[in-house]
């Protein structure tokens, strides 16, 4: 048996993977339309920092549930060798590199949905890792899941990794167009410099 579907930890991990991007997208969209977090936290930046803490905390819980799910799953002898572990280490390091450098390049507000709070980027980030990938944070996270699965020689981890990428792909179908709409609307609302308003911000 490659995957033990009777383990509750497997389903908890999948539930967490599903819940996280769904929850932060719903919360952020509601913020954009109603400013509920801005009002609750006393400012847009404070609200963005609050959702950043929530997303980061949910990510830690998700990773803990994932690791527990792997511990409860059978290992595969054909994955348990030094070559696979080398590939696993390279994938994990690459994934974490993409995640950490994305966060550094975007900053806290750029990483954690500041656009939805009206905290817009002044210009598109084009340096590494965005000159390599369009969505380096999602790709990096997926690579980290894959590397962990291979390191522990768990076929269930490979299945979970496929599900992770599917969830991220769905999330991007909502996030991408909505973020583009935010910047498009912002550019339409900016008057010319002669009228004393702010310069147009570019995504």
From TrEMBL:
Its EC number is 2.1.1.71. Keywords: Endoplasmic reticulum, Lipid biosynthesis, Lipid metabolism, Membrane, Methyltransferase, Mitochondrion, Phospholipid biosynthesis, Phospholipid metabolism, S-adenosyl-L-methionine, Transferase, Transmembrane, Transmembrane helix. GO terms for biological process: methylation; phosphatidylcholine biosynthetic process. Residues 8-28 dip into the membrane without crossing it. It is an enzyme of class 2 (transferase). S-adenosyl-L-methionine binds at residues 93-95, 175-176. Pathway: Lipid metabolism; Phospholipid metabolism; phosphatidylcholine biosynthesis. Pfam families: PEMT. It comes from the Eukaryota. The chain crosses the membrane at residues 44-61, 82-106, 149-171. Signal peptide: none annotated. Residues 62-88, 174-203 are cytoplasmic. InterPro entries: PEMT/MFAP (IPR024960), Phopholipid_MeTrfase (IPR007318). PROSITE patterns: SAM_PEMT_PEM2 (PS51599). Belongs to the class VI-like SAM-binding methyltransferase superfamily. PEMT/PEM2 methyltransferase family. This is Phosphatidyl-N-methylethanolamine N-methyltransferase. It comes from Coemansia spiralis.
């Amino acid at each position: 048996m490659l995957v033990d579907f009777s383990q509750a930890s497997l389903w908890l991990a999948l539930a967490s993977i599903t819940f996280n991007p769904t929850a932060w997208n719903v919360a952020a969209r509601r913020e954009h339309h109603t400013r509920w977090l801005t009002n609750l936290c006393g400012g847009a930046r404070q609200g963005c920092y609050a959702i950043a803490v929530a997303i980061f905390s949910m990510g830690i819980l998700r990773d803990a549930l994932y690791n527990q799910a792997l511990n409860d799953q059978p290992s595969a002898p054909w994955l348990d060798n030094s070559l696979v572990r080398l590939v696993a280490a390279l994938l994990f390091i690459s994934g974490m590199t993409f995640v950490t450098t994305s966060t550094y390049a975007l900053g806290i507000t750029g990483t954690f949905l500041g656009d939805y709070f009206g905290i817009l980027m002044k210009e598109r980030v084009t340096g590494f890792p965005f000159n390599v990938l369009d969505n380096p944070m999602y790709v990096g996270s997926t690579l980290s899941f894959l590397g962990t699965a291979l390191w522990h020689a768990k076929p269930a981890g490979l299945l979970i990794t496929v599900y992770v990428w599917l969830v991220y792909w769905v999330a991007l179908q909502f996030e991408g167009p909505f973020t583009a709409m935010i910047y498009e609307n912002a550019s339409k609302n900016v008057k010319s410099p002669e009228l004393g308003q702010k310069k147009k911000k570019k995504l």
